[in-house]
Amino acid sequence: MKTEIIGDRLYLPENITPEKIYSYIAQCAQLAMLLEVSASPKPGNVDRNHNYEDTRYEHFLASAVSVHPLVETASKGKGSAGRYIRSAVYESSLWQRGGNTHFGAFVLLIPLSMAAGEIFESRHHFTINELISSAYSIVKNTDVNDAIDFYSAFRMGKVKVTSIDKYDLNDDRSIDALKKDRSTLFDLMIISRNRDIIADEWSNGFKRCGYCASLIMDALQRYPEVLNDDKIDINNVVVYAFLKILSENTDTFIQTKFDKETADAVSRTAKSIIEMIDSDGLTFGMVLPYIERFDNDLIDKKINPGSTADIVIAGLFIALIGGLRY
Question: How many domains in the chain?
Fold first, then answer.
């Protein structure tokens, strides 16, 4: 995992007045989800050109729209992360019938939104490291009620997880064990961090999210150099960031659904495509057929790098609240 993060100070756009800040944070979260699901070809995942049998592109659109009020409230810091995650999953389920669309994204976006609101209460600028450090502080201060709410969210979202010995999400007795041990949501993430990349983000301070934000901003700022194309295209930047994150990390959603060997093979293919993009003389358009072939292969095998998508959503969110425009 690479975690090189730019240290430049980012600023809220001048038109974002104090009374608009919390709504702005929610808008950025929505746009991050919409940009990610719309990007195509995004190998293996639902996008504007690919649906799964039970989960469609439009389900993701509905889910992204549904949580605006919830994210806006969370950014005001008047509640707990676990409760907001549970509420986000609930709101999403009210607006669409496609099942689990954004669970992992909510787990990342909620603390990052809370951190953004906390920072913007006193100033209109931040660095990526400051934002992810604030989010890390928030998650480290979760309690047993957050853990219980998180378990409820998992059940509500019908999320597929790997069984573990302690506090197994598939075991009805886990809630009683959590209450008895007074284990926090952060404790649960520590236990799961070797099996789940989202839990690892909580455990290690959202470093991949910060790195992804840097990656996206750098790619847009140096577009001709990075993607060897003259015309800036946010779609291509998101696809590039997706492939880059996938090439450097094992997607634990694939690992849970299939096995680690399958997940590692997917990452190796992504790495080979990134190496082509990084080669001199190859434009993004010239590499596009390889990305499309990779996409079709994963779609046919129902292999979807869902955890990678969640990291990209969080990276987009961080970049957007810092004023990224395209």
Answer: 2
Q: What is the identity of the amino acid at 35?
A: L
How far is Cα 103 from Cα 272, in angstroms, rounded to an integer?
29
Tokens at 133, concatenated: 């450090």
- Tell me the one-letter amino acid at 319: A
CB 274 within 8 A of CB 325: no
3-class DSSP state for residue 235?
Answer: helix
Spans in the chain with pLDDT lower than 70: 1-7, 157-158, 160-165, 170
Burial 210-243 (b: 16+ CB within 10 A, else e): bbbbbbbbbbbeebeebbbeeeebbbbbbbbbbb
Cβ proximity of 132 and 205 under 8 Å: yes
Structure-block tokens of residue 90: 């609930």
Q: What's the pTM?
A: 0.94
275 and 186 in a common domain: no
Q: Which residues contact 45 (CB under 8 A, 6 or more apart)?
A: 37, 304, 305, 306, 309
Count CA atoms closer than 13 A to 307's CA, side-chain side. 28
Q: Which residues pair with 11 in a beta bridge?
A: 125
Q: Both 100 and 243 in a single domain?
A: no
**Each residue's pLDDT tens digit, 198-244:** 999 999 999 999 999 999 999 999 999 889 888 889 999 999 999 99
Q: 3-class SS at 42?
A: coil
Long-range contacts of 168-172 (CB under 8 A, 24+ apart): none
Cα angle 310-313-317, degrees, rounded to a multiple of 5: 145
Give the helix/strand (H/E) hosting 52: none
Q: Are residues 135 and 228 in the same domain?
A: no
Residue pair 206/219 in contact by the 8 Å Cβ criterion: no
Residue at 2 is within a domain: no
Residue 292 lies in a domain: yes
